[in-house]
Amino acid sequence: MTDKVTFPQLGNYNIAFEYIFNYGMGLEYVKPPKMTDKTLEIGSKYSPDSVCVPFKFMLGNYIESIEKGAKILVSVGGVCILGYYGELHEQIIRDLGYNVRFVNFAQSRFAKPSSWYDKFKALNPDMSLVKIGEVLPIAIKMIEYIDIAEDYLRSNLGFEVEEGSFDKIFDNYLEGMRNVKNRKELKQHHKKYMKLFEEVKVNKPQNPLKVAIVGEYYTIMQPFSNHFMEKWLVNKGIEVKRWMNLTNSIIDRPEKEVKKHINNYAKYDMGATSMYTIGTALKCAKKGYDGIIHIKSAGCMPEIDTMTVLQNISKDYKIPILYISFDSQTSDIGLETRLEAFYDMIMMRKEKII
């Protein structure tokens, strides 16, 4: 009987994780249920009150996946307190009486390759490193393709002539990606659907409102945790720029270039996503974007540190910045009120400039 494994939901990237587990490790991947208020309710119930909301979402995700049959839970590390999440998640889940295995990649070190090998073997002792070597490049390319498609949608979704056209194609794009078996099929699949995206009729003004979203890793990339903010913005006819994704921050990771770019505003890396938050904000300010929205989970220290720097960028480039913190009590109504006010402001400002 094949062991069932899960990994917390993160945007649409679980398609790539599913490919790794199913085809690379010989495990059955349990797709976490679609995130709902129940996910957050479960996570909040068993989490420390003061912990940031991504911790609660991930814990709720784990418990819902266990109830779907998952027996192996996978956790990853990070450059902030994310690196400590795995051990605390494991302790809470064990205290709740669940009989599962936890494989925590936060305990692996790049300087010690054997530590990664040990974790892979902990997932499946019979796993083939040759097979992993074949599968990983395909999974990475899946991530890159998903990011390319999502970037295209953020730029064009708000201007489609027939409402729902892009969403329908994108849903089919993601579902079809689950069926590809090799790199050739993946490339053909992506090329086919990018052509379909480009064939969708759009009525995009020459100079649309442009808003950049910057901030904390998880809250940006998990739509439910930011109350589907990008969807709200594009429905207002706004072209959205969101640099933070796995391709940019993990696969390519232009660390040296970003450090050089932000040198006049921040000489030291303040941790986690802070450097890239500042870099994206500065780049978009220089390009004349109409506004920037900075989002984070409540209490995220690296992102709190960036706020003073962002204020300086806002002052120097005369660009408005909206700061939003999310916790388990954030309401749709309160958030929408703030977004509406921000939208009205940048719209009136643009009309005045034009």
Please, could you describe this protein's structure?
The chain is built from 15 helices and 8 strands. The protein is an alpha/beta fold. The strands form 2 sheets. A 4-stranded parallel β-sheet has the order 2-1-3-4, sandwiched between helices. α2 (37-46) packs across α3 (53-67) and α6 packs antiparallel against α7. The longest helix has 28 residues, at 129-156. It is globular, with a radius of gyration of 21 Å. It starts with a strand and ends with a helix.
**Helix fraction bin:** 55-70%
The backbone outline, from C-alpha atoms, is globular
How do the SSEs run, as a string of H and E?
EHEHHEHEHHHHEHHEHHHEHEH
Q: How far apart are the first and last residues' alpha carbons, in Å?
A: 66 Å
Average residue-wise pLDDT:
91
* Percent of sequence in beta strands: 5-15%
Largest sheet, strands/sense/barrel: 4 strands, parallel
Radius of gyration: 21 Å
Structural class of the helix and strand makeup?
Answer: alpha/beta
List the helices and strands and how they pair.
Blueprint: E1 4-6, H1 14-24, E2 28-29, H2 37-46, H3 53-67, E3 72-75, H4 82-95, E4 101-104, H5 113-123, H6 129-156, H7 165-177, H8 183-199, E5 209-215, H9 217-221, H10 229-235, E6 238-241, H11 246-252, H12 255-261, H13 274-286, E7 291-297, H14 301-317, E8 321-326, H15 332-353
Parallel strand pairs: 1-2, 1-3, 3-4, 5-6, 5-7, 7-8
